[in-house]
């Protein structure tokens, strides 16, 4: 066997490996033997680093010298909800600087929840001659000046996607930095930007890029400009409108409707800020072929929403506000048999009383009517164990189930019992469940169910749940495939964590905030397990200034081969052998 | 969240859990009682007792219909308690007790953010001011809020709003792109950055959680002044004797200022709240000595109620 492996010329093996794209498969190949490891590492072209602090740029570069595509993720997921203070970290600049010299032929950079500065963008713009794809998802720290540098210098740019990033929006002028000779744009997403870009520059850009298939405009693009843009890009596959609101005028309407009709390839729509019902019929002609519809910024009500979704028989993904109500979801269940993903967001998350008639029933209907539904994010104000159990039995193919009941610790509103059994049914029936977020009143029992049944679970989000350390222990000891665990406001302390310390090295990360993990336990973990970074965040000051038994505010533990990081702000401390000495 | 505090630190199962016993025995022991009861679904009165001690307010007496249904299920502490607390007359006491309990138990941003919710301005958004709850991305939250201000009927009677945005977009074309009348397009209206002179770490504050300058100032005072005092004092005196924080009346070492859409720095409090909301880009707690030349002083308006700083 060994002889056979070594008798294959490297080129042959390399050629074989080139058909393997998946990271896990690539990793498996590299572990077969040393020569395969060597061959594989020279021909790996794409790397994914789920936690930018798990490994250092030099280490990556040393192992994989010929990378063309890099994906990095920075801050923990709970940063989305402002639980991670400013300045925590996740800076991309060191990566860009290292790659600028090591990967001159880098083509793609995809970042999520990282701090990206204008300097970083400028460095990208001038270092990578064949740069093609820049995706900045939920990033921050840069301004439109950095975008101007990208636009001006990246001659081969195909994709610029700023989804949900926080940009210091100085002006819309940056778009005009794309030279007239630039024609390779395939995908542009500027939906998060506030400023107006020059419409004529936008139209000219769209008009001269024949391969443009994705265009997500920002809110500042008024409705009466949309038709012109669409007419210049009838080949569009994905469109995000700007503001979808204007006074009803027949000529505006008819040119819009005509423009939409001309886009025969359009499959995905989004945007629709401030949508007015009067202009919705303009998209009716293309509804039957739509596969993805994001109406989560559209303030239209259930009657109009129902009418709309009823025409979208090919719909696979729907994001919508709770204005759709149970009645609209019933229509969805009746007409959209191909639905795979549903997200329902709250229109008034802080209102004390429900403002719409959206209940657990809506989700039950969809679970009954849509056999392919496997991914759910659902905000509501009431839930029952029965409903959850019904959903679970209806949809054993569920892979992502995220429920949020607006009120923390809300019980089953009929029986007033905890929702343990409902979620228990979910994990029991949905054997392929990969991601779960729970809500409502939950005791340790639900964690027991999860530990016993959720064997494929990779990511779990928990808030205001559980009674004791036993809850956490069930999860850590039972969920074999757990990679990410994020917990807030739960009564979990030291015991479960210390008993399951070894488990933490098999996971990407653990976040715990407003729990009861003591500083002493954090120190212990940091000391005993060298390949974990145990970071304590505490804005009250150094944890060493309080007793060891004092709980820490926030705890972020992640495995790493790069050792402790040194770019932390003043309110973050890493627990390791050295720091433990320093702090005590 | 309060639920993460003293109660849970001493719950039976949580071994290493801090009891913080060394600093305040009485708080902890009362808390223990509550917790033991909590697991057997106490009646509301008992919960009230426990809640009263650890957070200084009659939490159970929230006065909301929903609250009583909850109490039967052994609800511990939720954000729902906070609105009712804030409206309690003995708010000062509340804060002091917080300090005591909080010296050694997990204090999170949740509590601080939750407290200043005020009903003074009749804010409709006061139910759940826990940080990061409900778990909606700030990006989406800001978009939502901006839309909430526009009328939402099926007919196009939102003509006024549309005209406004038309006008504002015309204005934008003339003025370049920074200014916009309603602040909608910026998408930042909810959370704005706050920096304080001398403090390296900036914070963010959710302007939508406030209906008046007072509550905003209280929140900021808690964010920036409470933390420095807690480092030095373990016994939990929250009052910072060196810098009594009265950000709005110009009597302290610091004043609260904001940068508006035109890039000018103004004193907070000079314009009506709504106008402030639509023009603020970010906040800065500035040293009074550096605040010369800003908009006219605020001192004249001392008939405005001041809440005690924490």
Q: How many strands, what sense, and barrel or not for the largest sheet of chain A? A: 21 strands, mixed
Q: Unreliable runs of chain B, pLDDT <50, ≥5 residues?
A: 1-128, 149-189, 227-245, 297-310
Binned, the helix content of chain B reads 25-40%
SS summary, helix count of chain B: 11
Q: Let me know the average pLDDT of chain A.
A: 94
Greatest interface and its participating residue counts: A-B, 103 and 94 residues
Structural class of chain B: alpha+beta
Low-confidence spans of chain A: pLDDT under 50, at least 5 residues? Answer: none
Distance between the termini of chain B: 18 Å
Secondary-structure element order of chain B, N to C? HHHHHHHHHEEHEEHE
Task: Please state the average pLDDT score of chain B.
Answer: 52
Estimate the strand proportion of chain A.
Answer: 15-25%
Oligomeric category: heterodimer
Subunit structure (chain B): Homodimers and heterodimers.
Region (Disordered) (chain B): 147-185
Keywords (chain B): Auxin signaling pathway, Nucleus, Repressor, Transcription, Transcription regulation
Biased composition (Basic and acidic residues) (chain B): 151-170
Describe the structure.
- Chain A: InterPro entries: COI1_F-box, F-box_dom, Leu-rich_rpt, Leu-rich_rpt_Cys-con_subtyp, LRR_dom_sf, Transp_inhibit.
- Chain A: Keywords: Auxin signaling pathway, Developmental protein, Nucleus, Ubl conjugation pathway.
- The complex is a heterodimer of chains A (584) and B (310).
- Chain A is of the alpha/beta class.
- Chain A is built from 22 helices and 23 strands.
- Chain A has a 21-stranded mixed sheet.
- In chain A, helix 12 packs parallel to helix 13, helix 13 (325-335) packs parallel to helix 14 and helix 16 packs parallel to helix 17.
- Chain B is an alpha+beta fold and 310 residues long.
- In chain B, 37% of the residues lie in helices and 10% in strands.
- In chain B, strands 2-1-5-3-4 form a five-stranded mixed sheet.
- The longest helix of chain B has 20 residues, at 213-232.
- Chain B is globular, with a radius of gyration of 21 Å.
- The two termini of chain B are 18 Å apart.
- At the A-B interface, helix 19 of A face helix 1, helix 4, helix 8, helix 9 and strand 2 of B.
């Amino acid at each position: 066997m060994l002889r056979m492996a070594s008798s294959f010329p490297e080129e042959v093996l390399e050629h074989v490996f080139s058909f393997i794209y998946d990271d896990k498969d690539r990793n498996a190949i590299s572990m077969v033997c040393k020569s395969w490891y060597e061959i594989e590492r020279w021909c790996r072209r794409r790397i994914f680093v789920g936690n930018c602090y798990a490994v250092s740029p030099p280490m990556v570069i040393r192992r994989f010298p010929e990378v063309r595509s890099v994906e990095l993720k920075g801050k923990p997921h709970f940063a989305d909800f402002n639980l991670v203070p400013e300045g925590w970290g996740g800076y991309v600049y060191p990566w860009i600087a290292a790659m600028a010299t090591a990967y001159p032929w880098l083509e793609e950079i995809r970042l999520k929840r990282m701090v990206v500065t204008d300097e970083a963008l400028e460095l990208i713009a001038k270092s990578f001659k064949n740069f093609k794809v820049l995706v900045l998802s939920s990033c921050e720290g840069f301004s439109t000046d950095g975008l101007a540098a990208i636009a001006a210098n990246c001659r081969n740019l195909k994709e610029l996607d700023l989804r949900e990033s926080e940009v210091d929006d100085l002006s819309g002028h940056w778009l005009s930095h794309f030279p007239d000779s630039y024609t390779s744009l395939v995908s542009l997403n500027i939906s998060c930007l506030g400023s107006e870009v020059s419409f004529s520059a936008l139209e000219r850009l769209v008009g001269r890029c024949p391969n443009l298939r994705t265009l997500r405009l920002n809110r500042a693009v008024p409705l009466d400009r949309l038709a012109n843009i669409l007419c210049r890009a009838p080949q569009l596959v994905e469109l995000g409108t700007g503001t979808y609101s204007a006074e009803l005028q027949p000529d505006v309407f008819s040119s819009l409707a005509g423009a939409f009709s001309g886009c025969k390839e359009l499959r995905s729509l989004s945007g629709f800020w401030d949508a007015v019902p009067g202009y919705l019929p303009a998209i009716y002609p293309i509804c039957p072929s739509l596969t993805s519809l994001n109406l989560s910024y559209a303030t239209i009500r259930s009657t109009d929403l129902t009418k709309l979704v009823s025409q979208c028989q090919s719909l696979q993904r729907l994001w919508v506000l709770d204005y759709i109500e149970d009645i609209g979801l019933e229509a969805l269940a009746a007409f959209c048999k191909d639905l795979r993903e549903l997200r329902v967001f709250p229109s008034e998350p802080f209102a004390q009383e429900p403002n719409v008639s959206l209940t657990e029933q809506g989700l039950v209907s969809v679970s009954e009517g849509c056999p392919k539904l496997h991914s759910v994010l659902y905000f509501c104000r009431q839930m029952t164990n029965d409903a959850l159990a019904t959903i679970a039995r209806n949809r054993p193919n569920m892979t992502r189930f995220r429920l949020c009941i607006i009120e923390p610790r809300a019980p089953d509103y009929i029986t007033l019992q905890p929702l343990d059994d409902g979620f228990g049914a979910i994990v029991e029936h949905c054997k392929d469940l990969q991601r779960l977020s729970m809500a409502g009143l939950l005791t340790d029992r639900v964690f027991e169910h999860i530990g016993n049944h959720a064997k494929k679970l990779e990511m779990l989000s928990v808030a205001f749940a559980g009674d004791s350390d036993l809850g956490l222990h069930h999860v850590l000891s039972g969920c074999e495939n757990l990679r990410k665990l994020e917990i807030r406001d739960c009564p979990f302390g030291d015991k479960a964590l210390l008993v399951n310390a070894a488990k933490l090295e098999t996971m990407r990360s653990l976040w715990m905030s407003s729990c009861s993990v003591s500083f002493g336990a954090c120190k212990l973990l940091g000391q005993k397990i060298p390949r974990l970074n145990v970071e304590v965040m505490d804005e009250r000051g150094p944890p060493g200034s309080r007793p060891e038994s004092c709980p820490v505010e926030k705890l972020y533990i992640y495995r790493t081969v790069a050792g402790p990081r040194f770019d932390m702000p003043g309110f973050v401390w890493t627990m390791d052998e050295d720091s433990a000495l320093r702090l005590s | 969240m309060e639920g993460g505090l003293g109660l849970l630190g001493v719950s039976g199962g949580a071994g290493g859990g801090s009891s913080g016993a060394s600093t305040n025995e009485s708080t902890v022991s009362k808390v223990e009682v509550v917790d033991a009861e909590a697991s057997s679904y106490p009646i509301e009165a008992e919960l009230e007792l426990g809640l009263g001690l650890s957070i200084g307010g009659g939490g159970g007496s929230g006065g909301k219909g929903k609250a009583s249904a909850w109490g039967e299920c052994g609800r511990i502490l939720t954000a729902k308690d906070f609105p009712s607390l804030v409206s309690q007359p003995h708010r000062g006491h509340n804060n002091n007790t917080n300090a005591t309990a909080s010296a050694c138990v997990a204090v999170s941003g949740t509590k601080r953010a939750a407290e200043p919710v005020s009903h003074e301005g009749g804010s409709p958004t006061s139910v759940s001011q826990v940080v990061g709850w409900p778990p909606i991305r700030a990006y989406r939250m800001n978009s939502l809020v901006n839309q909430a201000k526009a009328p939402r009927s099926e007919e196009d009677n939102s003509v006024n709003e549309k005209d406004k945005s038309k006008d504002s977009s015309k204005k934008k074309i003339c003025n370049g792109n920074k200014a916009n009348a309603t602040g909608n397009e910026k998408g930042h209206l909810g959370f704005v950055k706050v920096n304080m002179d001398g403090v390296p770490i900036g914070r963010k504050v959710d302007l939508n959680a406030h209906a008046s300058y007072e509550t905003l100032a209280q929140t900021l005072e808690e964010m920036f002044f409470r933390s420095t005092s807690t480092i030095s004092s373990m016994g939990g005196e929250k009052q910072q004797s060196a810098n009594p924080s009265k950000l709005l009346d110009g009597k302290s070492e610091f004043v609260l200022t904001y940068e508006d859409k035109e890039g000018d720095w103004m004193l907070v409090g000079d314009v009506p709240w709504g106008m402030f909301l639509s023009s603020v880009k970010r906040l800065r707690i500035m040293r009074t000595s550096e605040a010369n030349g800003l908009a006219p002083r605020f001192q004249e308006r001392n008939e405005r109620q001041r809440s005690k700083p924490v």
